[in-house]
Amino acid sequence: MFWTGKKRAAFFFVLVIAPTIVFFWRGASLLLPGIPFPGYLAERLTSLILAFVLGMFWLLAGTALAAQFLFPVPTLRARLDAWWCLLVWYIGFHRQGYLVRNGKAQDHLKGNRFGGWAGVAIVDSSSAAVMDDGLEYTRTLGPNVVQPRWFGNVLPAARSSTFFLNRYEQVCGAIDLRRQRYMRVVQAITRDGIEIKCDLYVDFQIQRDPRKARPGVPYTFDDGSVFRAVYTEAVRKEQGRPPEIIPVKKEQGQSSETPPVKKEQEQPQESMFKHQTGSQPKSEYRWVDAVINEGAEELRNAIARYTLDQLYATGEPEREPRVEIEQSLLPLLQNRMRPKGVDVLNITLGVFYAPPSVIDQRVDTWKADWERRQKVTAAQGEAEQQRRTEIARALAQLEMIEYITKALPSGNDALSKDIVTLRLIQSIEAMARQSAEETGAATDRSRELAELLHRVLAEMATLPQDKPR
Questions:
Q1: pLDDT higher at 413 or 129
Q2: Is residue 147 within 8 Å of 223, Cβ to Cβ?
Q3: pLDDT at position 248
Q4: Are residues 188 and 200 located together in one domain of the fold?
Q5: Angstrom distance (rounded) from CA 179 to CA 364
């Protein structure tokens, strides 16, 4: 920045300190003739005084005009405060300046927290900031709340996001007032000892105060809820606990009303899953971590009551274990987070992922079961085929006997034997021909029966025939 501390000090010395020294010197020379004073300064003192007065006027007028465009303040008193902040910034006696945006406090303007004259905090409409003086909580800054001024007065904020800080005051934490949606990959163990993974989605927000609802304020909040959420975060930092989850940067192209899904991931630990653990960047504990941690713990406890088959519902396709777990987790997490100032709105579970080794083992088991069923079905088919073949053979024999019996003539016994033999061979040949037509190919047995029939007919033709009695 152009106006560094040394340059501002030199500017202040030239415009204020040096003319003051000259005026006191001239006054002392007039009162005490023994004190010398340069003649050329005495001659031009009037012009110097006029130039000094005009310079100071233009300085004050210029800073007052610039201050009107520096801070979005609505009242005259607030504009005077803004002018005073700009003036002390020029001379280097300012305090810290904060910009709270998207639930994060950024220390944009460095300054002397303990000896400065004026400080400022700008909070956007979707955030709230908790202030303290290093010893205790002082107030909560947010859209459309009552704000103490730097001069000690109290003035309702008229849709202003600019707040002037008290002495020793600083931002100790910030909260995003929008609806939050976080996702975390949770590792859990089923009742039968199988480790699985599941995506946990939690929708939540800071508890809101409906009494503060008014036009132009999109997000109302409860001061106590914001304080409890920030206090949980501050206690976590003071205890020196390591961060438990790693935030993923927000995705672009998302609206301010519905923030993007923020992905959380557990710390690397020994697992049956093959994943790269690598070095991960460290992050501070945040108030949203308490929500996702409580949800992950309750999800582990819920999964521990199910077996892997129950989670996949292989025996009961109409059941939805994920919906059952979601419905049981939501009231538990709401009761856990309500004292901490957080409203849990919804819980959604993703797909259950088993380790690759378990999946391969279950595939092999299912494959063996299907092969067993296939063999049993094939054996049953063969047995049924054999049974039906025996029944068909018996029926054919019965039909053949009836056919031969009906065709027997009464009288000559020798002729009856020949006819029975001939009918028997013809019936067998007909059965063989029918079987060949059903199978689509002629068999050797049918050809043998045809040759046998021709041979019997030839023998019957050569035998002498007895005369009838």
A1: 129
A2: no
A3: 35
A4: yes
A5: 45
- 225 and 329 in a common domain: yes
Residue 85 within a domain: yes
The whole-angstrom separation of Cα 314 and Cα 116 is 69
Express each pLDDT in 454-468 by its tens digit: 666 666 556 555 544
SS3 336: helix
Structural domain span for residue 56 = 1-69
Q: Give the pairing type, strands 180-189 and 262-265.
A: parallel
Nearest to 353 by CA among 224, 225, 200: 200
Burial level of 403, CB count in 10 A (0-12/13-18/19+)? middle
Residues 57 and 189 in one domain: no
For residue 270, is pLDDT > 50?
Answer: no
* Predicted TM-score (pTM) of this structure: 0.55
Q: What is the DSSP string of 291-330?
A: HHHHHHHHHHHHHTTS-HHHHHTSS-TT--HHHHHHHHHH
Candidate from 245-259, 355-369, 418-432 with smallest mean pLDDT = 245-259
Among 69, 97, 114, give the residue marking a domain's end: 69
**The tokens of 414 are what?**
């020798």
Per the document, the length of the chain is: 469
Question: What span, in angstroms and rounded, lies between the C-alpha atoms of 69 and 159?
Answer: 16
Same domain flag for 423 and 436: yes
344 located within any domain? yes
Query: CA 382, 384, 390: angle at the middle one, nearest 5?
Result: 105
From CA 115, how far away is CA 95, in angstroms rounded?
Answer: 7
Number of domains in the chain: 4
With vertex at residue 215, the alpha carbon angle to CA 213 and CA 216, rounded to the nearest 5 degrees, is 110
Please check whether residues 259 and 324 belong to one and the same domain: yes
List the structure tokens of 78: 């607030």
- Three-state SS at 1: coil
Whether 18 is in a domain gets the answer: yes
